[in-house]
Write a structure and sequence with these properties.
5-stranded antiparallel sheet, 9 strands, alpha+beta, 38% helix
């Protein structure tokens, strides 16, 4: 009996089983870690792909607008004229003749630079805003000049919204891109864009005028056009709306 117990105590079979179980546990943990890393990498790859597709769709829509504006121009138009008026005394005798000066803003144009006679595709969006800015410029230039502005144009400038679809060869083809356009006092055009249902990211851009803003530079009698106002891309950037919101909340 004593010999049997001694043999059991000296047996290595139990220790071998324990080591085998420990080895199996380690292998399982390593395998789980590898699988978790693979899943994480796959998710990261999918996320990067989605981000790339979103950027392509947004930048394509914004580039389309920028191309349209880069080949378009605005010209203000006005007419200046003078009239004479006789000042008489009580006897009806002319004692003085004065010159009355008038200026009226005419309808300006928003056209493509090539061909120049073709209206720009965004004429109905931008022309009224440009006309209102030019009206403000006329008022500023002629204040105190003694020139009467006839039928001055007035109104408010508000942001405009458009919906575009783009073809980029990705899963997001034909997904509506929401565009907001806002004309600034300097004639700069501010653009924001985001995808329908995917507003995690947005693209912002600004087109800036190439020349000085249109103004009244010729006060000879007749009809006059201003110098052409054209635009060039000032900057473009993509923003993570969630990160931006989190930073603002912090």
């Amino acid at each position: 009996m004593t010999g049997a117990i001694s043999r059991k105590l000296c047996s290595q079979r139990g220790a071998s089983m324990l080591l085998a179980l420990l080895f199996l546990l380690i292998c399982s943990m390593v395998t789980a870690s590898i699988l978790m890393a693979a899943v994480a990498n796959a998710g990261k790859h999918r996320s990067n792909l989605e981000e790339h597709q979103i950027y392509l769709a947004l930048s394509s829509a914004v580039s389309t607008l920028c191309d349209e504006l880069n080949r378009s121009e605005y010209r203000g138009q006005y007419v200046y004229w003078e009239e004479t008026e006789d000042i008489t005394n009580d006897d009806g005798e002319v004692i003085e003749t004065i010159i009355l000066k008038y200026l009226r803003q005419l309808d300006g144009t928003y056209t493509h630079t090539s061909p120049a006679t073709e209206d720009g595709n965004l004429k109905n969006v931008f022309l009224n805003d440009f006309e209102l800015l030019f009206a403000e410029e006329i008022s500023s230039v002629l204040t105190g000049s003694g020139i009467t502005i006839v039928d001055p144009k007035s109104g408010a400038i508000s942001p405009h919204t458009l919906i575009l679809t783009t073809v980029t060869g990705t899963e997001l083809d034909d997904t509506p891109v929401h565009i907001t356009l806002e004309v600034k006092e300097s004639y700069a055009i501010y653009i924001t864009a985001y995808l329908d249902g995917l507003n995690t990211y947005k693209v912002e851009a600004e087109l800036t005028p190439k020349e000085n803003k249109p103004t009244v530079s010729n006060l000879s009698v007749g009809t006059h056009d201003t110098e052409a106002m054209q635009w060039t891309l000032g900057w473009i950037t993509i923003l993570d709306v969630e990160e931006e919101g989190g930073a603002a909340g912090a």
